[in-house]
Design goal:
Helix content: 25-40%
CATH superfamily: Ribonuclease H-like superfamily/Ribonuclease H
Structural class: alpha/beta
Number of domains: 1
Distance between the termini: 48 Å
Radius of gyration: 17 Å
CATH architecture: 2-Layer Sandwich
Length: about 200
């Protein structure tokens, strides 16, 4: 059973990101504040939930959350500041967009930088232990998948509608065959045999 919060504060925002390990596309983060009585039997870490259930949960979370928001960090920003800093920046942007000042922030993982003066706590595997972090995981994943499906229509050979930019064999073969796009992360090792692609 997932817990509602990590602290005694009622306005506690859960934060998570999606897309850290991808070769292409942005990293996308979400911040969510749920009502105290929120519960749903499907809600869990987005990696443990099927696509159709994730989409259903996205609608439910967006309708029932007290506040929710998305933050995005582009591939160019990832290349400039590295993926860890970009993930944290995306979470900061989600918090900036939240529409209220949370009393406390619970973040999935073990690394975060203070957002203003709001206290925070990192939670390893928090998306499988706390409802609001799981909800943020769902929103980050579904919003990012939607972005990658839109980019797929511009660059169909890479199969981003299926792999969402992750390093699958077919994605890497497409990089060999067609080269890279402006959406690929140049600071990542795009191919195992990579010497230079640019």
């Amino acid at each position: 059973m997932l817990k509602a919060r990590t602290s005694e504060f009622e306005l506690e925002a859960g934060c998570d990101e999606a897309g850290r390990g991808c070769l292409a596309g942005p990293v996308v983060a979400a911040a969510v504040i749920l009502p105290p009585d929120f519960a749903h039997p499907w809600l869990n870490d987005s990696k443990q939930v099927g696509k159709s259930q994730r989409e259903s949960l996205r609608t439910i979370i967006e309708q029932e959350a007290l506040f929710w928001a998305i933050g995005v960090c582009s591939p160019a920003e990832i290349d400039k500041i590295n993926i860890l800093n970009a993930s944290i920046l995306a979470m900061h942007r989600a918090l900036d967009n939240l529409g209220t000042l949370p009393d406390f922030i619970a973040v999935d993982g073990n690394r975060f930088k203070a957002w203003g003066s709001v206290p925070h706590k990192t939670e390893v595997k928090g998306d499988g232990r706390f409802l609001h972090i799981a909800a943020a995981s769902i929103l980050a994943k579904t919003h990012r998948d939607q972005l990658m499906e839109e980019l797929h229509r511009l660059h169909p050979p890479y199969g981003w509608d299926r792999n969402a930019g992750y390093p699958t064999a077919s994605h890497r073969q497409a990089i060999r065959d067609y080269g890279i796009t402006e959406h690929h992360r140049r600071s990542f090792r795009l191919l195992p045999e990579q010497l230079s692609l640019f």
